[in-house]
Amino acid sequence: MPETLQRNLITGGAGFVGSHLVDRLMEAGEEVICLDNYFTGRKANIAQWIGHPRFELLRHDVTEPIRLEVDRIWHLACPASPVHYQHNPIKTAKTSFLGTYNMLGLARRVGARLLLASTSEVYGDPEVHPQPESYRGCVNTIGPRSCYDEGKRVAETLCFDYHRMHGTEIRVARIFNTYGPRMLPDDGRVVSNFIVQALRGEPLTLYGDGSQTRSFCFVDDLVEGLIRLMNGSSTGPINLGNPGEFTIRQLAEQVRDGINPALELICLPLPQDDPLQRQPAIDLARRELGWEPSVSLEQGLEPTIAFFRASLPIPTP
Ligand code: NAD
Ligand code: UDP
User: Per-residue pLDDT tens for 71-89?
Assistant: First the structure.
């Protein structure tokens, strides 16, 4: 047991990022309460810990208040893929606003520190490139992505108002596109889509001409950044992402060539408000947290592809 045993609440702990965080904290000997409503999370992601004396699993929706005794709240609950967060946009906005409000209320009551999983989407379709934390963003308030983008923006605002009004200890991470094992095969995000399509022998679907860019961070690197942020003294907001920037076409070619170079790339319409470019400036994370990603896209794709290969039904030729 570590000397300072922490009681951790991880909202969204059964999801993609949350479950990797559960693993890290459990392996470090801490206590973990995993809270999830299973909208996009799966029990299979945390099944390895069920029954462990330091682990508890709660089915709960963060839009409802809850009372618990904890030291740290890792607030990740919120669907992250556009397909999922646009499924019920009003619920997404409620999850972001009410969920963060409820978790901050809990943090204030029990004196816990709260880390918010915010997003690069607060920068919208950015006119500044790469995006530093000081950039205030270019966000459509009424488009199909707004429930998520604006939801996270108001969640950040709530964090800073609780901090200023009540002295609540807060940490705000602006997470850029993250990938790795345990992404859902049907969540519509680009890395999982391309890998699943390639493994099934289907054409890879480029939205638009594939010239838009993203910067992809492997999940282990992100989790290390979240832990450093929570343990450190900076409130943030702090960008956590991999500055390696790729066009979506480059990503498609890399995935295809690693699985089946004969596959076709096809172009489909670009979704409304799809940001044209995105790359984190991570000077602040380097300086404040001594953090930078260590896993390249090529290295990170390998275990991700292996995960999908092992978990998908793949047609035999
Ligand atoms: P995910 O969809 O895999 O995980 C979200 C989890 O939250 C799921 O387990 C889901 O069931 C749960 N959840 C959703 N609504 C809930 C509610 N109302 N009450 C309780 N639980 C609820 O997504 P992820 O990729 O693991 O993202 C985790 C967090 O990180 C999210 O807050 C997301 O906005 C943020 N983030 C992720 C990325 C990324 O690229 N993965 C990028 C930026 C920000
Ligand atoms: N995208 C794509 N093909 C797909 C899925 C996504 O070309 O099958 C594009 C999408 O239009 C966007 C980028 O890939 O430009 C990243 O999409 P994702 O949904 O993963 O993340 P976000 O748009 O939220 O950054």
Answer: 999 999 999 999 999 999 9
Does residue 282's CB lie within 6 angstroms of at least one atom of ligand 1?
no
Give me the number of domains the chain comprises: 1
Instruction: Read off the pLDDT of residues 43-65 as tens digits, 9 standing for 90 and up.
Output: 999 999 999 999 999 999 999 99
Q: Is residue 119 part of a domain?
A: yes
Secondary structure E strands in the chain:
7-11, 31-36, 55-59, 72-75, 113-119, 170-175, 178-179, 204-207, 213-215, 217-218, 238-240, 245-247, 265-268
DSSP per position, 22-52? HHHHHHTT-EEEEEE--SS--GGGTGGGTT-
- State in Å: Cα 165 to ligand 1 middle: 27
Length of the chain: 317
pTM (2 d.p.): 0.97
Whether 123 sits among the annotated catalytic residues: the reply is no
Coil vs helix vs strand at 194: helix
CA of 39 to the centre of ligand 1 (A): 9
Provide the residue range defining the domain that includes 287: 7-179+217-243+275-294
CB atoms < 10 A from the CB of 301, how many?
23
